[in-house]
Specification:
globular; 4-stranded mixed sheet; single chain; 6-stranded mixed sheet; Nitrilase/N-carbamoyl-D-aminoacid amidohydrolase
């Protein structure tokens, strides 16, 4: 779980930072690394409209593909995607051969992001050497009834990876108002009902442009296990860069039968 700083509108800085963190993750024995949402340009930064690039062959995606191939890692990462005249808040899963094996476009973008990003149009899972993996992005997790995450569970996901950008007002007091309840409340029931793992990985650093300029991304990246409880919780803070490692064991998907349909319902 790569909780790294993302600087708005600075793709070269951000991608170089991501490449260094991937090398570090590999050196520490990781098989898969998860990077934050829109790590190239920063979430809702105005540069999205001019700086977005293609997937899978744009420069930003190619750099991540090369890093995955170089280190023999699976890499999940959020990128700002241009497709024709449209811009998407997207995420990819790249395999250890450097191939994009899963490509997601965010479905539940907050209203303040609508001027930057078009509506997502896809959701999927893929079978990898590490198990069946699904990808969502940040606020996809708290669609009413957790329908995005539950759909990934119904599609057979054993692990859900969620590049994220978790932000608070500049004057937020984490002692008076601890951060993270929203994610625990939405990850936990889905992880427990489907016996799967969910990893949400946020960036850190100030938001320097767009509708939330002045807010801070504060990390708190979270891994929830099949019991529905947090297994790893990353530190809080605009400067709280961290590389967190965990060992997970994907469980078999639930057998179809009585009660299968109940998994749609929030508990």
């Amino acid at each position: 779980m790569v909780q790294m700083r993302v600087d708005g509108g600075e793709p070269e800085v951000n991608l170089s930072r991501a490449e260094a963190r991937l090398a570090e993750a590999k050196a520490k024995g990781a098989d898969i690394a998860v990077l934050p949402e829109t790590l190239d340009l920063g979430w809702t930064h105005p540069s999205a409209l001019s700086g977005a690039d293609a997937i899978p062959d744009g420069a930003a995606c190619q750099r991540l593909r090369n890093a995955a191939r170089r280190h023999g890692l699976l890499v999940a990462a959020g990128l700002t995607e241009r497709s024709g005249d449209r811009v998407f808040n997207s995420a990819v899963l790249v395999d250890a051969d450097g191939e994009v094996v899963l490509h997601h476009r965010k479905l539940n973008e907050l209203e303040i992001g609508h001027d930057c990003y078009d509506q997502g149009d896809r959701l999927g899972v893929v079978e990898t050497r590490l198990g069946v993996i699904g990808v969502m992005i940040c606020a996809d997790a708290f669609v009413r009834g957790q329908v995005v995450a539950r759909t990934l569970g119904l599609m057979g996901a054993q692990v859900i990876l969620s590049p994220s950008a978790w932000a608070v007002p500049a004057d937020h007091d984490p002692v008076r108002e601890p951060y993270g309840g929203l994610w625990r409340d939405n990850y936990g029931p889905v992880a427990r009902d489907f016996r799967l793992w969910i990893a949400g990985v946020s960036n850190v650093g100030p938001i320097t442009g767009g509708p939330w300029e002045g807010r801070q991304c504060i990390g708190c990246s979270l891994l929830v296990g099949p019991e529905g409880r947090p297994v790893v919780e990353a530190p809080y803070g605009r400067d709280a860069e961290a590389l967190l490692l965990a060992t997970i064991t994907p469980e078999a998907r639930p057998a179809r039968g009585d009660g299968w349909e109940d998994l749609w319902q929030p508990r």
